[in-house]
Amino acid sequence: AQRVTQPEKLLSVFKGAPVELKCNYSYSGSPELFWYVQYSRQRLQLLLRHISRESIKGFTADLNKGETSFHLKKPFAQEEDSAMYYCALHSGNTPLVFGKGTRLSVIA
Amino acid sequence: EAGVAQSPRYKIIEKRQSVAFWCNPISGHATLYWYQQILGQGPKLLIQFQNNGVVDDSQLPKDRFSAERLKGVDSTLKIQPAKLEDSAVYLCASSWDSHTEAFFGQGTRLTVV
């Protein structure tokens, strides 16, 4: 069965500090991994996907199949990065499976 | 383009009552999802439609939950009768197909008292 694990419920960092939001998954095939973000009072939206291998708002994530991880990283956190972040997995015709989310709080 | 529209935004009902939620997906999106998000947890899929057909409803509590998308556009999700544990945010999302980005609505926050 597919499973996405985000071990941290809350992550607090100071502005300008590096950020790493952890995500581990369990799936035997070749999954697609995503990061979704929900800012305060806004709807859930896609931040980035591993296929595109792009940097969005300074965030990057690399799929590590050996460690079954897809950690989200940003070298210098900004206050506007404070939000809920969800890691999600999709494979074949199965729908998105979400982790429980990590709340990132960037302290000025 | 207009986003996914959901109504109502909030609903408070007593247990054993019925409730219905409505979703209007982005125009042209064939795939529609209903997710349940309980406080402190990630969204959990309830049902996935491809046009007006059900693709996956394995996690839908069919004894009390039902959903339809009769014309392949709008969708309704119904709970009858509601239980206290149904208190959650119900999210609707749509995408061009099951392999493309899903766009989410604002959600309906249901409180069962």
In short:
The complex is a heterodimer of chains A (108) and B (113). In chain A, 0% of the residues lie in helices and 47% in strands.
Using brief descriptors, characterize the structure shown.
heterodimer; A: 108 residues; mainly beta; 3-stranded antiparallel sheet; B: mainly beta; 7-stranded mixed sheet; 0% helix; globular
Describe this structure in words.
The complex is a heterodimer of chains A (about 110) and B (about 110). Chain A has about 110 residues and is mainly beta. Chain A has strands at about 5, 10-15, 20, 25, 30-40, 45-50, 60, 70-75, 85-90, 95-100, 100-105. With about 110 residues, chain B is mainly β. Chain B has strands at about 5, 10-15, 20-25, 30-35, 45-50, 55, 65-70, 75-80, 90-95, 105, 110.
Ends apart, CA distance between termini of chain B: 37 Å
Q: What structural category characterises the helix and strand content of chain B?
A: mainly beta
**Helical content class of chain B:** under 10%
The proportion of residues in beta strands of chain A is over 45%
Question: What global shape of chain B is seen?
Answer: globular
Task: Specify the helix fraction band of chain A.
Answer: under 10%
Terminal CA distance of chain A reads 41 Å
Question: What value does the Rg of chain B take, in angstroms?
Answer: 13 Å
Query: SS-based structural class of chain A?
Result: mainly beta
Low-confidence stretches of chain A: none
Which whole number gives the mean pLDDT of chain A? 92
Would you list the SSEs of chain B in sequence order as H and E?
EEEEEEEEEEE
Oligomer: heterodimer
Rg of chain A, Å, rounded: 13 Å
How is the secondary structure organized here?
The complex is a heterodimer of chains A (108) and B (113).
Chain A lengths: L2 E3 L4 E5 L4 E3 L2 E3 L5 E7 L6 E5 L10 E2 L10 E3 L8 E9 L2 E5 L3 E6 L1
Parallel strand pairs in A: 2-11
Antiparallel strand pairs in A: 1-4, 3-8, 5-6, 5-9, 7-8, 9-10, 9-11
Chain B lengths: L4 E3 L2 E4 L5 E6 L6 E7 L6 E7 L2 E4 L8 E4 L6 E5 L8 E8 L7 E2 L3 E5 L1
Parallel strand pairs in B: 2-11
Antiparallel strand pairs in B: 1-3, 3-8, 4-5, 4-9, 5-6, 7-8, 9-10, 9-11
